[in-house]
Write a structure and sequence with these properties.
This protein has helices spanning about 10-20, 20-25, 35-55, 55-65, 80-90, 105-120, 120-140, 145-155, 285-320, 345-375, 380-415, 425-435, 445-455, 460-475, 480-510, 510-545, 550-565, 570-580, 580-585, and strands at about 65-70, 70-75, 160-165, 180-185, 190-200, 210-215, 230-235, 235, 245, 250-255, 265-275. The protein is of the alpha+beta class. Among the domains are: about 10-140, Butyryl-Coa Dehydrogenase, subunit A, domain 1; about 160-285, Butyryl-CoA Dehydrogenase, subunit A, domain 2 (Beta Barrel); about 460-580.
Length: about 600
C-alpha cells in the first residue's frame, strides 16, 4: 500500500501562480506574505501530514474510538501524541488572530494545509478542524470576556470546540429542536437536551471541550426565529481561566458508522449543564451560520484531500500492476504490461486528476474570497467578495463532495478486486468520503441554498456577477487559447439560460426549484471548474518549455481532457433542467 505524499508542488502552483497569494492575501495586520514563507509552511505541513498522521490513518480506522467506561472516549493509538506535536508546532494557531496567540495567516493558506491533513488522515484532522470552526464562531459572536477566555485556549489547541445542532428527531430542520436553556440568577443558563452526530464530542486529546449548543429560551418564538446559541464547556472555567468542576454533560454513546472511525462521533446529553449565551437571544442560528459556512468550505477541502489520496494510490497501482497487453507494440515490455497502458484506466486516472486539481483551485479561490471579505481595504471589494463567497460555498461543499464519492470509487475500480480489499487502503477513502455529502447540511440542502437563496432570491444577480467574471476571462483570451475560451463562453451562456428558466418556472411551480436544484448545482460546478482549468491552461501555455517544469505540460494535457471528456456533461444537465418535472413532483406517488 503506497503512502500519502503531500501535493506540495500543485499547491504552490495554485497559491503562487494562479491566485498570487503573496501579493493579494496578507497576514492579519496587513503584513505581506512572501513566497519563501509560504513555501516553508507548505513544506513543514506536508511533512507533518505525510510522516506523522498519514501512518495513523489505517490503524486509526481499524482500531476506532472506544468507550472503556461510561462517558469516557479513547481515540486510537498515536492520535494523542500526534495532536500534541501538532499543537507544539503551532498549527492550531496558524490562522488565529495574533491577539489570541495566533499567527494571523490567511484562510487560503490554512485551507491548503488542511487539504493535506485531511488527505493524510481525515478522522484525525477533523478534531482540530472542528475546533477552528468553533474559534471562528466565538470570534465573530462572543463578547470581549468570552473571547479573552476561550479563544487563546482554542488557538493553542489546549481546548477543543464542537458544533451541537442535530437532535434525534430533527436533522436539517432546526426549527424542530427541543433543547432548552433556562435562565439562572447569575446570568448563566441551564441547558438540557440531547444532541447527536457531534464530531469530537468527547475525546482524550484536550484538557477541555467547548460545546457550542443551539437551544431555546423559555419565551422563545417557535421555529428557527426562537433559537439561541450557548457556550457549554465540558469543564467549567475557573476565575483564572483554568479547569474547574465537571459540567453536567456527558457522551452517551459513540456512533457506529461506515467510515471516519478515528473520529469520535458522539451522542451528547446535556442535563442542566451550565452555559452562557453567545451572541443575541433568538439569533443563534445566524451566529451558528458563521461556523457552518466556515465548516462547509473546510469539508469541501476535506473531500479534495481524500480524492487526492485515493488518486495517488490508484496511480501507483496502475504503474505497477501488470495485466493484459498494451494496445501498441512499442508500449509492450514483457508477457504483460502495466495497466496504465490501457485507455480506460487512463480515463479513470485522468478523471480523478482533473477533478482533484480543478476543485482544489476553486476551493482555494473561494478561501481567498473569505480573506478579502474580512481583511480587504476596499469596502466595495469586500462586498463583492462576500457575494461571490456566498455563491461559491455550496458549490465547494456539495460539488467537491459528490466528486469525492465518484473519484474514490473510481480509484477502487482501478485496483479491480484488490481495491475491495482493506489492505490496499483505497476502500477506506471511499468509506470516509461518503460522509462528506451529508456533513453540514446534505447536498440537496446545499443545492437548494444555491438555487433558492443565491439565485432565485435576488433574481440571479449574484450568479450574474460570477458568470460575468468567467465570461470576461474567456473573452480576453487570444487565438492560442481558443480551445478553452470558446467552450467556456458556451457553458456560461448555457448557465445563464438555465438560471433564467428556473427563475421563470419557480414563479409558477413550487416544486420546480427542488426538482432542479441538484442538476443546477452540478452545472454551475462545471462552470467553476471550466474557469479554473482555462485559467490554469493559460498559465501553463505561457510558461511551458521543452526542458522546464513538467507541471505545465501536465496542466495543459489535463485541461484538454477536462474540456473534451468531462465538461460535455453540461449538455445533458441542460436537458434535465429543461424537462418538465411536474409528472413526478406534483403527482400522487402511491405507486411507489
Amino acid at each position: 500500500m503506497s503512502g500519502y505524499i503531500a501535493p506540495v508542488r500543485d499547491l504552490r502552483f495554485v497559491l503562487h501562480e494562479l491566485l498570487e497569494v503573496s501579493a493579494t492575501s496578507p497576514a492579519d495586520g496587513g503584513e505581506a506574505l512572501d513566497r519563501e514563507t509560504i513555501d516553508q509552511i507548505l513544506d513543514a505541513a506536508g511533512s507533518f501530514a505525510s510522516e506523522v498522521i498519514a501512518p495513523l490513518n489505517g490503524s486509526g480506522d481499524r482500531e476506532g474510538c472506544r468507550m472503556p467506561a461510561p462517558g469516557v472516549v479513547q481515540t486510537p493509538a498515536g492520535f494523542r501524541e500526534a495532536y500534541d506535536r501538532f499543537c507544539a508546532g503551532g498549527w492550531t494557531a496558524l490562522a488565529c488572530d495574533p491577539a489570541h496567540g495566533g499567527q494571523g495567516m490567511p484562510s487560503v493558506l490554512d485551507n491548503a494545509l488542511y487539504e493535506m491533513f485531511c488527505g493524510a488522515n481525515m478522522g484525525w484532522a477533523a478534531y482540530p478542524g472542528m475546533s477552528h470552526a468553533a474559534y471562528t464562531c466565538i470570534a465573530s459572536n462572543g463578547d470581549a470576556e468570552q473571547q479573552a477566555l476561550y479563544l487563546p485556549r482554542i488557538a493553542s489547541g489546549e481546548w477543543a470546540g464542537t458544533m451541537c445542532l442535530t437532535e434525534p428527531h430533527a436533522g436539517t430542520d432546526l426549527g424542530l429542536l427541543r433543547t432548552r436553556a433556562q435562565p439562572r440568577a447569575d446570568g448563566s443558563y441551564a441547558v438540557t437536551g440531547t444532541k447527536i452526530f457531534i464530531s469530537g464530542g468527547e475525546q482524550d486529546l484536550t484538557d477541555n471541550i467547548v460545546h457550542l449548543v443551539l437551544a431555546r429560551l423559555p419565551d422563545a418564538p417557535p421555529g428557527v426565529k426562537g433559537i439561541s446559541l450557548f457556550i457549554v464547556p465540558k469543564f467549567l472555567p475557573t476565575a483564572a481561566g483554568g479547569i474547574g468542576e465537571r459540567n453536567a454533560l456527558a457522551c452517551g454513546s459513540i456512533e457506529r458508522k461506515m467510515g471516519i472511525h478515528g473520529n469520535a462521533t458522539c451522542t451528547m446529553n446535556f442535563d442542566g449543564a451550565t452555559g452562557w449565551l453567545l451572541g443575541e437571544a433568538n439569533r443563534g442560528l445566524a451566529a451558528m451560520f458563521v461556523m457552518m459556512n466556515h465548516a462547509r468550505i473546510v469539508v469541501g477541502v476535506n473531500a479534495i484531500g481524500l480524492m487526492e489520496a485515493a488518486c495517488q494510490k490508484a496511480l501507483g497501482y496502475a504503474r505497477d500492476r501488470t495485466q493484459g497487453r498494451a494496445p501498441t507494440l512499442a508500449a509492450r515490455s514483457g508477457p504483460a504490461d502495466p495497466i496504465l497502458a490501457h485507455a480506460d484506466v487512463r480515463r479513470m486516472l485522468l478523471t480523478q486528476k482533473a477533478y482533484v486539481e480543478g476543485t482544489r483551485a476553486f476551493a482555494l479561490w473561494a478561501s481567498q474570497l473569505a480573506d478579502v471579505q474580512h481583511r480587504g481595504a476596499d469596502p466595495k471589494e469586500r462586498e463583492r467578495a462576500a457575494t461571490l463567497l456566498a455563491l461559491a460555498t455550496p458549490i465547494v461543499k456539495a460539488f467537491s463532495s459528490e466528486l469525492a464519492v465518484e473519484c474514490t470509487s473510481m480509484a477502487m475500480q482501478v485496483f479491480g478486486g484488490h481495491g475491495f480489499i482493506a489492505d490496499n487502503g483505497v476502500e477506506q477513502h471511499l468509506r470516509d468520503a461518503r460522509i462528506i455529502p451529508l456533513y453540514e447540511g446534505a447536498n440537496g440542502i446545499q443545492a437548494m441554498d444555491l438555487l433558492g437563496r443565491k439565485v432565485l432570491a435576488d433574481g440571479g444577480a449574484g450568479l450574474g456577477l460570477f458568470l460575468e467574471a468567467v465570461e470576461q476571462f474567456a473573452q480576453a483570451q487570444g487565438d492560442g487559447l481558443r480551445e478553452f475560451a470558446e467552450p467556456l463562453s458556451d457553458v456560461v451562456a448555457l448557465a445563464r439560460r438555465a438560471a433564467r428558466d428556473q427563475i421563470e418556472r419557480a414563479g409558477a411551480d413550487p416544486n420546480a426549484a427542488g426538482a432542479a436544484a441538484m442538476p443546477f448545482l452540478r452545472l454551475i460546478g462545471h462552470v467553476a471548474l471550466a474557469w479554473m482549468w482555462a485559467r490554469m491552461a493559460a498559465l501553463a501555455r505561457a510558461r511551458q518549455s521543452p526542458d522546464g517544469d513538467p507541471i505545465y505540460r501536465a496542466k495543459l494535457a489535463t485541461a484538454r481532457f477536462y474540456f473534451e471528456r468531462l465538461l460535455p456533461e453540461t449538455q445533458s444537465l441542460a436537458v434535465v433542467l429543461g424537462a418538465d418535472a411536474s409528472a413526478w413532483t406534483g403527482a400522487d406517488l402511491d405507486w411507489l
